Amino acid sequence: MKRFFQVINKDSDGSCKKPKEEGNYDNATDTDTQKKKEPLKFVTWNANSFYLRVKNNFPELCKFVTSFDPDVIAIQEVRMPAAGSKGTPKNQGELKDDTTASREEKAVLFCHALMRALSAPPFGNYRVWWSLADSKYAGTALFVKKCFKPKNVFFNLDKIASKHEPDGRVILVEFETLRLLNTYVPNNGWKEEPNSFQRRRKWDKRILEFVTQNSDKPLIWCGDLNVSHEEIDVSHPEFFSAAKQNGYVPPNKEDCGQPGFTLSERRRFGNILKEGQLVDAYRFLHNDKDMERGFSWSGNPIGKYRGKRMRIDYFLVSEKLKDRIVACEMHGHGIELQGFYGSDHCPVTLELSPSSNSQNENPE
């Protein structure tokens, strides 16, 4: 990782910032930045620690990004802490550099090396936004090619400036012709507790309100949505339906089973799709169960979850966009996690055709 080293300026709160680049979002001056209005190629990926993926799987990851050449990359489970001193409010839009005399080398590897890696191709071609948790947990990131200039960027479902969702679970970008929502949805958990079933119900209620109240523009909603909608979306329905943790059985039968595959979650998700007039892009193109490439999450190759897989990472698009879906694919396969790049989730891609009135081509 030392090959990525570059001196990075630190703020007074200890955060690391990416070096200023010509043509960035704040001071867009190059011609290309001002021309393209609508992204057409997208990637979503739960990286299960983006820093570790850059540290351990960077060449393969760069090859994938270079090959697909996405306009937008949505990352979940960044798992890097937000900037700010202990006991003070955190800056969820900046990475923490917890440098001390005894941890200088670790800090260099953590912050400097990461920023240096993201300054080089292919990631150097993108503007990046972060929404981070207070600790090394959850968090999201969004990379948008510099030739696109979003009108607005929010980090919450309420579209309030500068506010971040707890644990950095939301990045919402508004382009001229559409919105893109990147979310890391809270796991349902196993019990009737505030940080388990109750938290997920509240989230589902809020996201339902969001999709029904923001229909003035087409929406692309992507990310780790932590739910498998139908039996076709899991490798072993009986296994997941009967799953328990330490023998615990929830009082409500609809809450029984593997988090992400309980009847209550699936029914709420179906209602969100219906009321929000959203289309599951992958299922729109793929009607049959694919045991090799039809799942985005795979259990540990060692243990009872070996070979057990779920599709919980999605691209959901407004119905008015469905006829423009060209491709939606999962790029991992097999129970040995090929194409997962070190994560337990594989990247999912979406490609749209240009709209009939698109001005996506650069004028002469």
From TrEMBL:
Keyword Lipoprotein recorded: no
UniProt-annotated binding residues for Mg(2+): 46, 77, 224, 226, 344-345
GO biological process: base-excision repair
GO cellular component: nucleus
A Gene Ontology molecular function term of the record: DNA-(apurinic or apyrimidinic site) endonuclease activity
Record-annotated site: Interaction with DNA substrate: 345
Enzyme class: hydrolase
SUPFAM superfamilies: DNase I-like
NCBIfam families: xth
Protein name (Swiss-Prot/TrEMBL): DNA-(apurinic or apyrimidinic site) endonuclease
Source species of the chain: Arachis hypogaea
